[in-house]
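Next up, a specimen:

>
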Amino acid sequence: MSASTPISYAQFADWVQDALNHLYDLPRLQNHPLAGLLAGQATTRVQRGQNLRRLLINAILSMSPEPGTPAQSPDWRAYRILELHFIEGQTPGQVMQALGLGRTLYFKEKARMVEALTQMLWERRAELFTLDEARAEMPARDSVEELASIQARIEPLNLGQVLDELCAMMLPLAQAKGRTLFCAPDAGVYVQADRVLLRQAILDVVGHMLEVSDAPVLALAGFADARSRGVRISLQPTHAAVPESTWALAAQLMRLMGGEVVARPGEIRLRWPAKGASIKTLLVIDDNAGLIQLFRRYLTGHAWQVISAGNLAEALAVAAESTPDAVVLDVMLPGQDGWEALRTLKSHAHTRHVPVIICSVIYQPELAAQLGAVGYLKKPVTQAQLLQALASLAS
């Protein structure tokens, strides 16, 4: 269908919803009606699918709230629904849990944001869905700049967790093509990467491999050796060469994350230098066991392990045995002055040089800074706020 073919808004909205629901099913996107509108007949099917995926991802990213918008605002919550569900591929249940939403509010907000996204694309349809051959053949400059801007999100990632999530997502697609998807993630392999870009790179390679190869088994595994660590995606039992088109987009994404793609007969490796990311230790000083468990859940897969103490004396004993990389301190400890506890931590031999982040229902960041704290988290704390606070320690 050409860009000049009359279509109704209702038909266009149905196509947008379908494309979003199959954002990482490359074969489906290659033959999607929107891909035909986007690239016409001037590009290959693979390019049409990649262009459509890129456009939809950039459209979602463009709906991000203005800088300075509070992380807990309704605007951020609504945007995160789109990002977590469509870009990161999380299930509705996972998104509801991550954002603390009930079922009714989740689906109401999701529908509202999808409608806003569709309306934006409809209003710009003459611009977005009329690409000439030269524009369709080259990577969109805005897309490259958008991806480059996401480098600030690079953090330690547990490859085992990333592959577990992706394998569950890709299994139906492999089964529909009569293939076996075998996953053997190594929970001990960590890399410095952007979670969204890494997932896109893996999904793109897997989608292409399922399309271009008739191998009955596709295997994904984390690996670590003396020189590198990363993800190995291999065809079994064939050892035929994998076409470059299979990993061209992944190579671009890996470069943005400081990694590379290595192609071997029947195998693609997304890898980083072996220096990788070591697991760091976070000491949480709080008498609330529920908060400790919450922080452990927040940091699963992020190269942080959580140890805890219910009071200052216990914290100093724990720190003497295992020097933490960071401390989160509640200033409302039972029977103790948390501010005095902070002063003690900043003068004690085992914790003097350890950065301390205050976490409390009371918001007094200036006092905390004067007493030596490097950050402040006001309860209740979201996962994004905790990760941002810890990431700032390395900057």
In short: The chain has 18 helices and twelve strands. Residues 1-5, 131-152 have pLDDT under 50 and may be disordered. Residues 280-394 form a domain with the Rossmann fold fold (CATH 3.40.50.2300). The two ends are 49 Å apart (CA to CA).
